[in-house]
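Two entries, shown back to back:
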Amino acid sequence: MTTGRDEAEREVGRRAAAGARVRRRLGRAVTTGRDEPEREVGRRAAAGARGSGRLGRAVRAVRDEAERGAATVVVLAVVAVALVLAVVVGAVTSGHAARVRAQGAADLSALAAASAERSGMLADPCSLARDVADRNGARLVVCEKEARGVVRVVAERSAGFGTAVARARAGPARERPGPADHGDR
């Protein structure tokens, strides 16, 4: 005959054995018949996931240590991209400015040479065109006198990453073909 005390001792033993089995399986992968293992979730694993207790603090400390300095790397990458972009924009702007200045020098040189050719003041109007181009920061590459007082010039100006080239032509309006000139005059 069993007494209540014997029953209580057996119940305590069964519970202790069940607890030992659970403690052995905590953190181990258990195969469920599928290809991927599932992790047994216990009190300690849940505490680590919530971030409470000693385990949670340890997990947070490891995670924080692994992420330390990540923002610095991102900021440095953004700054590097911004600097490269600034250099490219500066180069394009410098090239455009040099092209505009070269075109201005070519236009003025062609006008000066055409005026000198038409008035007959100088024997060589291209020398005046060269002087005007030099004063405007460009170098006269080509200066050709065409028929009836028309002058064609090519000027170039050094840019930051190359050379800007501009062409111009000047002379009397009736000698140059244009949209208003239909040959009726």
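entry 2 starts here
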Amino acid sequence: MEKQIEGSKKRVMVIIDESEHSSHSFMWVVDNLKEFITESPLVILAALPAPNFKFLYGAQFGTAALWCPVKAETILEAGEPYELICNAVQKNNINLLVIGNTSINGTLKRDFLGRLSNYCLNNAKCHVLVVKKPE
């Protein structure tokens, strides 16, 4: 007798903003994890840097939720992205956090890329997957 895969009840969260890297990580989740998130909705989080910028992300945020071919739950939060993401992971019982890498070049790339991903790796109470956009 075969064991049934338990992955369908896992909760996956993807972080989106207006970057190409964010769009790529969202598409990666849809293309590669669709079979594993059939019973739990894909959680789409837009963590905005400040309350007065909410309107900037509205169009892409709404498009992502409407286009998503799997059941989705959307969260729009404003504040410090590092803390918002980790708090949302705990609050929503997330099993896998998916974030895109950044497009910053030069000496800042190593520093900035390390900030968010390292913060999430060290503080999120779940597995963290950083999706790299092909060049």
